[in-house]
């Protein structure tokens, strides 16, 4: 079990959401402003020795923590802004990330569409 899973399982108060990443959407679709502490924890966890060594053993390179550093930088950049600005900037960033995720890689490059069913389909029992 990872440290993030332990912190999620250790959260016994159902009214307090457990942090999954630096920002999350709530159940009603509202965006939650990034937590500076959560982003800092993610950077610290990325650079810890054991996970770095495990990544080096498995892949032959050290783990790239650029995403965690970007999240921390983003959380820092929001600190001087009003709450409405923070929510709007975070929503725009989330929408841009979602749009990039959808348009960047398409599953149509992996799958080929069939014009007819495969031979011996359905199999006879």
TrEMBL record:
One of the Pfam families matching this protein, by short name: PANTS-like
InterPro entries according to UniProt: Pants/Emi1-like
Region annotation (Disordered) ranges: 1-22
Biased composition (Polar residues): 8-22
Protein name: Uncharacterized protein
């Amino acid at each position: 079990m990872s440290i993030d899973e332990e912190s999620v399982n250790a959260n016994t108060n159902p009214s307090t959401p457990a942090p999954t990443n630096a920002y999350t959407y709530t159940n009603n679709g509202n965006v939650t402003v990034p937590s500076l502490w959560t982003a800092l924890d993610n950077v610290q966890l990325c650079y810890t020795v054991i996970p770095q060594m495990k990544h080096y053993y498995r892949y032959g390179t050290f783990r790239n923590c650029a995403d965690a550093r970007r999240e921390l930088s983003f959380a820092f950049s929001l600190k001087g802004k009003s709450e409405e600005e923070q929510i709007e900037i975070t929503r725009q960033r989330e929408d841009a990330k979602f749009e990039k995720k959808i348009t960047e890689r398409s599953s149509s490059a992996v799958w080929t569409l069939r014009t007819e069913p495969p031979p011996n389909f359905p199999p006879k029992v």
